[in-house]
Amino acid sequence: MPQTVARLLAESLKAHDVDLVYCVPGESYLGLTDALSDMNSIRLAVCRHEGGATFMAVADGRLRDRGGVAVVSRGPGLSNAMVALHTAYHDATPLVILVGQVERKDFGRLALQEQNYHKLLADVTKAVIDVNEPVMASEAIARAFHIAESGTPGPVAVVLPEDIFDEPADFPVDQPRPRVYAGPRPEDLDRVAEMLAKAERPLVWVGGTLVGEGVTDDLQKLAESWVLPVSPTHRRPCLFDANHPNYGGYMGIRVPKLLLDEMKKADLILALGERITDSVSQSYTFPVAPQPQLPLIHVWPDPNELGRVWRPELGVVSDPQAVIRGLLAKGAPRDAAKRKGWVAGLNTIHRKLLAPEWEPTTDGINFAAVVCEIGKHLAPDAIVTSDAGNFSSFIHRYIGFKPGQTFLASIVGAMGAGMPMAVAGAMRHPQRQGGALVGDGGGPITGNRIATARQ
């Protein structure tokens, strides 16, 4: 029996180390689900709604630092997934979504559920790749993963017409492209070191593209040897140990005035893998956009992001871990100890804010108390997820995350992410403790994810 496009697509996913795919079955891609079932080496998680399925794939992508995979049917199926694509795009999370399409002979006729995905997805994907010829099938998968994982990570859509799956495809599997990493130029690294050495009150903000094996240890070594305060940014609390003396306070939405006033005494910001959004910058006031009120070193793996909103004093196109390792290799300046008081002051405020103190309530349960108690019982490798909403402020205020723990959420604030992300975490790491914190909005939106979890 000749190899079909469906089988070639399945083999191509396997070649990219895909072992788990989230979907809501639909008629427009039944050929692919048949091939995956026949192959029986990729687990197919059947979900109840495409938004939840794609949120699960987003979480899986973040847990693995690889492109998570979702498959959705055409038209309404993809439309249901848009909220999760929006999250992956804004949160810089790698994702590959396979989308059904009408038969090729019906293109442009407004056939049942037909949509122009290039227009629909223009603002929430890095690329839309059409597979209109069998010869393109495996190449499209390889290209999708390459784009999704390179530069600024994000979602890529691969569009598959319904009538292509049974087409013969006697072509080899296109092997994964080697992952490309940007690195700092020697002169850029020299200047980063020089600016940091001169600074007396620097801030180090760490965000979502700071990933890689050993990155937590590297960051801690840098903080200790260079005497630097480190602040995880909005909804990335697990990037630095909240109990470490160099923790400089959480830089998320609505930073408490006591901490923000102290941070505003800084004479340098080093943003490592943090895009710097309105949430992090306190509505574009710290730093002020577009001209920061203090020198900014912005490290991000994509040149298109640097200078897009803020004018950095120095923009470095690099994997942020490479900058950290470059600074460690250079060695700390002799007078790094001059910053001990600055670091200690920020950490003192952080510990005061982290302490379980709150106003008494007379109208119900105090959620701060609930969150503090939950924090006491988290395992060293717990996976915690949160939905969007003001209630999540308590999580970031009162749970001091430790190395080894994982926090997942929609950084851009999409409601409905908490429960599906928790299900994905449990499927990827069933041996680890997991839990979702959801509000009265996100809970009902994603309640049917419990059915997926039970199944």
Could you describe the 3D structure shown?
- The protein has helices at 5-15, 30-39, 50-64, 76-91, 117-120, 137-149, 186-198, 215-226, 257-263, 320-330, 340-354, 367-376, 392-398, 418-428, 442-445, 449-454, and strands spanning 20-23, 43-46, 68-72, 95-101, 127-130, 155-161, 202-206, 230-232, 268-272, 296-300, 314-317, 383-386, 406-408, 434-437.
- It is an alpha/beta fold and 455 residues long.
- A 6-stranded parallel sheet has the order 2-1-3-4-6-5, with helices on both faces.
- Helix 1 (5-15) packs parallel to helix 6 (137-149), helix 3 crosses helix 14 (418-428) and helix 9 (257-263) packs antiparallel against helix 11 (340-354).
- The mean pLDDT is 95.
Tag the structure with descriptive keywords.
single chain; 455 residues; alpha/beta; six-stranded parallel β-sheet; 16 helices; 36% helix; globular
